[in-house]
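Lecture notes, continued. The same structure-token format from the folding unit now serves as the input rather than the output. Read the line below as a description of shape only.
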């Protein structure tokens, strides 16, 4: 684990997947899921070069088919530490024979983590170092403890969006987007968290108005979650699990009937040779005044 900290927050990142694995407040209380495999063995995987699942776990690129598991190749690769200070670290992944079997491009993928006061900023940057255009999407998948460790029970926890979010939600079936949508459970700006919301899998907004939200109970400290201009969002847990994932995405899973080249996949960015794509997510521990 690589550790960074400030007087108000500390984090540890696993070079395997450059995955945030520990996030604690100044008193050592955990804010991130501990990876208990009884619920979910991951904690905060990074999604590159796709978000979500592919139909048949494969895609077509200019007429050739490739296999790739859900959320892409980065989460299963060991990153090198490119830069490190007491409050900042940069992890770097470059292509290898293993990644090129699933994703036939030369790339550099950087994951920067920086703590300033009570905020952790995570910045992902994909750079195309091949000689042809490269398809890419980026996304985040952090699992925050539910309930937060400040004495309020699960039923008191809410996700409050910055804007009203009345749009219907995309529906998942076997990890793919199916044709019908579901009504949104958001009331104005508030999503009142309860286990039955997740009986059919994640809540997925194809296009979200907000670029930030508050998570927690009104009576205690909360997590402020902000992100860059990523249009989609997933919120997910397994009913009864001690976490909830807040997942900003620049892409989305395939639809169940998707049968086109990867360039037509929603949220897929065409990155020219030498070009970079970057997105960020910030988590801030806020104490009520």
């Amino acid at each position: 684990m690589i550790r960074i900290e400030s007087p108000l927050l500390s984090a540890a990142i696993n070079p395997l997947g450059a995955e945030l694995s520990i996030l604690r407040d100044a008193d050592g209380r955990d804010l991130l899921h501990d990876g208990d495999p009884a619920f979910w063995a991951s904690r905060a995987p990074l999604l590159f070069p796709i978000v979500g699942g592919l139909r048949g776990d494969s895609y077509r690129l200019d007429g050739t088919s490739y296999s790739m598991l859900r959320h892409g190749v980065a989460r299963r690769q060991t990153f090198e530490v490119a830069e490190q200070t007491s409050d900042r670290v940069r992890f770097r992944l470059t292509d290898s024979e293993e990644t090129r079997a699933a994703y036939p491009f030369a790339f550099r993928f950087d994951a920067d983590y920086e703590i300033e006061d009570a905020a952790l900023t995570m910045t992902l940057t994909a750079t195309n170092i091949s000689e042809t255009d490269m398809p890419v999407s980026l996304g985040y998948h952090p699992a925050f403890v539910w309930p937060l460790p400040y004495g309020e029970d699960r039923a008191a926890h809410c996700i409050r969006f910055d804007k009203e979010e009345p749009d219907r939600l995309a529906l998942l079936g076997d990890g793919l987007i199916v044709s019908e949508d579901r009504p949104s459970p958001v009331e104005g700006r508030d999503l009142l968290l309860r286990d039955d919301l997740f009986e059919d899998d994640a809540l997925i907004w194809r296009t979200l108005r907000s670029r930030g939200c508050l998570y927690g109970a009104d009576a205690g400290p909360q997590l402020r979650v902000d992100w860059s201009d990523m249009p989609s969002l997933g919120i997910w847990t397994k009913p009864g699990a001690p976490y909830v994932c807040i997942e900003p995405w620049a892409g989305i899973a395939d639809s169940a009937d998707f049968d086109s080249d990867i360039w037509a996949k929603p949220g897929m960015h065409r990155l020219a040779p030498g070009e970079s794509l970057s997105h960020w997510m910030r988590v801030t521990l806020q104490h009520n005044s």
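Point for the exam: The radius of gyration is 18 Å.
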